Amino acid sequence: MSQGKLRCCGSSLFLKARFGLGYTLTMVVSDGGASEALTAAVYARLREYIPEAELLSSAGDELAFRLPFFAASKFAFLLRHLDGAKDELGVGSYGMSVTSMEE
Q: Fewer CB near the last or first residue (10 Å), C or N of the chain?
């Protein structure tokens, strides 16, 4: 706080790295809906690669997971595995993004 205003020093990438929550992995389920069994199977598979992964939401045909910044070195292995196991897991597509400043 400076003179009653919130001030930040640094780029948005610097601030996200310092205070952010990590990355968000969003998946769209291909068979119509994210059942509890499918959600549990996908979550278990993610945790094999990144034990710190957190389930954020399971709504309709979309699953969202939070992955920590320090796990970025494991993303290549995880994404390669997801590409090969899409049909087995019932995942149609997925995307990853850095959490927003608001989050």
A: N
